[in-house]
């Protein structure tokens, strides 16, 4: 069944006149392809601060791999890890820590195992893997700086799991698992791809839309007075509740159709451009 992307875009609500809070994705958005913060991004963050606009990060990453960037950006705000499953302060303390039911984790692991999809379990403190030497683990270790703990049997570690990840180079399979697990665990888990090879399964309220609502509430801002920037399917839930949604230039057409504006790519200073073109002109009047 074809989807009319133009119709989706035409049906989006009006853009807010005032932005008091920005919620930004990390990978593919505020970070360059090399997982760095561009000088233009640092300048744009300073401009937001000077304009009185709070910046929060919302990522599929665990807090431990977000905190170095929180500190480099000089953020004093709360941020959302695990797609909103954990809300945490710059000192690393959690104000929200949602976990998955044990039975749901078993169902996820069973399904991923049957389809030979590499599986990781993440808690607020640990990243658990069956094999610490796979290419996916090595890639994640390089880019996040985290060190996994290899365990003999993931089935012995279902307590306190905040996120289950399924990883495969079979992109069609990952997309199919998103649908099938999502249907099976409707009401128990939020199931979203963070990119074409990675499936994130988190508690039902652990999605970026709920994260945006929670962060808005913390700062006394209405969700309609927030702007969000992202590039992936797991960003769509925050696009739906914000007053200003911006897709990165390298995002797929369906992501762009669900955003009110599209900026340049994360290779070409797209995040800083989004701030200067779409957000700062809507800063609160002083």
TrEMBL record:
GO terms for molecular function: magnesium ion binding; phosphatase activity. InterPro entries: Cof (IPR000150), HAD-like_sf (IPR036412), HAD-SF_hydro_IIB (IPR006379), HAD_sf (IPR023214). GO terms for cellular component: cytosol. PROSITE patterns: COF_1 (PS01228). PANTHER family: HAD SUPERFAMILY HYDROLASE-LIKE, TYPE 3, PHOSPHOSERINE PHOSPHATASE. This is Haloacid dehalogenase. It comes from Gluconobacter wancherniae NBRC 103581. The lineage of its organism: Bacteria, Pseudomonadati, Pseudomonadota, Alphaproteobacteria, Acetobacterales.
């Amino acid at each position: 069944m074809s989807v009319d992307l133009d119709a989706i875009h035409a049906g989006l609500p009006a853009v807010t006149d005032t932005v008091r809070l920005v919620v930004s994705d990390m990978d593919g958005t505020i970070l360059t392809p090399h997982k760095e913060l561009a000088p233009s991004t640092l300048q744009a963050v300073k401009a937001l601060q000077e304009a009185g606009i709070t910046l929060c990060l919302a990522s599929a990453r665990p807090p431990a791999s977000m905190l170095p960037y929180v500190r480099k950006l000089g953020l004093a705000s709360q941020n959302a890890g695990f797609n909103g499953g954990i809300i945490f302060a710059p000192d690393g303390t959690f104000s929200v820590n949602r976990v998955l039911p044990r039975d749901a984790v078993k169902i996820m692991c069973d399904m991923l195992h049957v389809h030979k999809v590499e599986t990781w379990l993440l808690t607020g403190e640990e990243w658990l893997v069956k094999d610490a030497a796979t290419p996916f683990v090595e890639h994640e270790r390089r880019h996040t700086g985290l060190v996994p703990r290899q365990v003999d049997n993931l089935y012995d570690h279902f307590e306190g799991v905040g996120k289950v990840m399924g990883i495969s180079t079979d992109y069609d399979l990952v997309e199919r698992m998103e649908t099938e697990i999502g249907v099976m665990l409707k009401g128990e888990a939020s199931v979203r791809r963070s990119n074409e090879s990675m499936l994130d399964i988190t508690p039902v309220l652990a999605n970026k839309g709920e994260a945006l609502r929670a962060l808005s509430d913390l700062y006394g801002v209405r969700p309609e007075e927030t702007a969000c920037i992202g590039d992936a399917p797991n960003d769509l839930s925050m696009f739906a509740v914000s007053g200003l949604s911006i897709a990165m230039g390298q995002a797929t057409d369906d992501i762009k159709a669900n955003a009110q504006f599209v900026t340049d790519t994360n290779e070409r200073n797209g995040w800083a451009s989004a701030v200067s073109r779409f957000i700062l002109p809507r800063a609160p009047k002083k």
